[in-house]
């Protein structure tokens, strides 16, 4: 498994929001772990909403996967969870990404990275 991917996963778990530097670290770690999958093609975060950027990453790299978001919005932050599955029609997917965070973007990114940390260890 890529130590860089595991390290960035742990950094994202501790984050309260996604800024351009953290997003760049994520993309670099994914590019290193999966050099043939074009993780850098979506470009930097600058000028984009973090939720839009992470959703684009999920849509690009997990096409046709189901995204389930649940949460309660609060003033200071939220309590969000995300599940990424190959299909929402069955419950025997080989890999599932799950994540939680104070923002939609972080919950999605944690789920996405958790899935890829597992992939990198296979």
Description:
With 122 residues, the chain is of the alpha+beta class. It has one domain: Double Stranded RNA Binding Domain (2-Layer Sandwich), CATH 3.30.160. The protein has four helices and three strands, in the order αααβββα. The protein has helices spanning 3-14, 20-33, 50-61, 104-121, and strands at 66-72, 79-85, 97-101. Strands 1-2-3 form a three-stranded antiparallel β-sheet, with helices on one face. Strand 1 and strand 2 form a beta hairpin. Helix 1 (3-14) runs antiparallel to helix 2 (20-33) and helix 3 packs parallel to helix 4 (104-121). The termini are close together. The mean pLDDT is 90.
Short précis:
This protein has 122 residues and is α+β, with helices and mostly antiparallel strands. It is 46% helix and 16% strand.
Key terms for this structure?
16% strand, 4 helices, three-stranded antiparallel beta sheet, 122 residues
Indicate the topology.
Blueprint: H1 3-14, H2 20-33, H3 50-61, E1 66-72, E2 79-85, E3 97-101, H4 104-121
Antiparallel strand pairs: 1-2, 2-3
Helix pairs in contact: 1-2, 1-4, 3-4
The overall average pLDDT, rounded, is 90
Question: How much helicity do the residues have?
Answer: 40-55%
- Major sheet: order of its strands? 1-2-3
From the N-terminal CA to the C-terminal CA, the straight-line distance is: 8 Å
Q: Characterize the biggest β-sheet.
A: 3 strands, antiparallel
Number of helices: 4
The chain-level structural class is alpha+beta
Count of discrete structural domains: 1
Order of helices and strands: HHHEEEH
CATH architecture: 2-Layer Sandwich
Spatial extent as radius of gyration: 14 Å
Strand portion: 15-25%
Q: What is the strand tally? A: 3
Poorly predicted sequence stretches spanning 5 or more consecutive residues = none
Q: Just give the CATH class.
A: Alpha Beta
Q: Any idea of the CATH topology?
A: Double Stranded RNA Binding Domain
Overall shape: globular
């Amino acid at each position: 498994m890529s130590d860089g991917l595991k390290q960035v996963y742990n950094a994202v778990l501790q984050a309260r929001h996604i800024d351009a530097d953290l997003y760049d670290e994520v993309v670099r770690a994914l590019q290193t772990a999966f050099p043939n999958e074009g993780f850098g093609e979506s470009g930097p975060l600058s000028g984009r909403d973090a939720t839009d950027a992470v959703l684009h990453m999920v849509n690009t790299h997990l096409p046709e996967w189901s995204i389930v978001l649940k949460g309660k919005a609060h003033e200071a932050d939220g309590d969000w969870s995300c599940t990424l599955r190959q299909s929402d029609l069955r419950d025997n997917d080989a890999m599932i990404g799950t994540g939680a965070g104070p923002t939609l973007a972080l919950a999605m990114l944690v789920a996405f990275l958790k899935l890829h940390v597992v992939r990198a260890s296979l």
